[in-house]
Amino acid sequence: MRSLLGVFGRTVERRAVVPGAAVSTGTALVVGVGGGSLIAEQTPAAYVVNGLLFGGLIVGGAIAAYRARESQLLCAVLTSGPVMVLAVVVQIVRRFGPGEAVGALGLPLVMLLSASLASLGGVLGTLGRQRRRSLLDPQQPRRWRPGGPR
């Protein structure tokens, strides 16, 4: 089985996306669906649940970006895909279920928020990666030594 996929003309590694998506989706399932259904809105506990959800998306994106060899940001954003699907299912159940109605902008807002939090995690994950440089790398500035050529 190949571990590489092509998305938008870029190479995406499954070994990077799957663990990040598992963390993001697991956090969304356990904290968001499980804990969010037990807690009333506009309470301090609801803010804790939202913070944990945001943290799970950021950590999932960071894991994907850290493990990817190339296209780190794309790998990080792809980790929010299963969370978006889960959000669609939850919004449909809430819309047609016996609960409160969902606002018209609820679903697009959740999708944009999850993608942007995963990309924030991707930026943090790429910062955590060490970049190995060659001694002859032209991007690396040369240091001036006393007595040496200028």
Structure description:
The chain has 150 residues and is mostly helical. The protein has one domain (4-128). Helix content is 63%, strand content 5%. It has 5 helices and 2 strands; from the N terminus they run E-E-H-H-H-H-H. It has helices at 14-38, 44-67, 72-78, 81-96, 106-128, and strands at 4-7, 10-13. Strands 1-2 form a two-stranded antiparallel ribbon. Helix 4 runs antiparallel to helix 5. The protein is elongated, with a radius of gyration of 20 Å. The model has no long low-confidence stretch (mean pLDDT 81).
Q: How many beta-strand elements?
A: 2
Task: Summarize the helix and strand pattern as letters.
Answer: EEHHHHH
Q: Indicate the mean pLDDT.
A: 81
Range of helix content: 55-70%
Alpha-carbon Rg, integer: 20 Å
Specify the structural class.
mainly alpha
Return residue spans where pLDDT drops below 50 for at least 5 consecutive residues: none
Strand line-up across the major sheet: 1-2
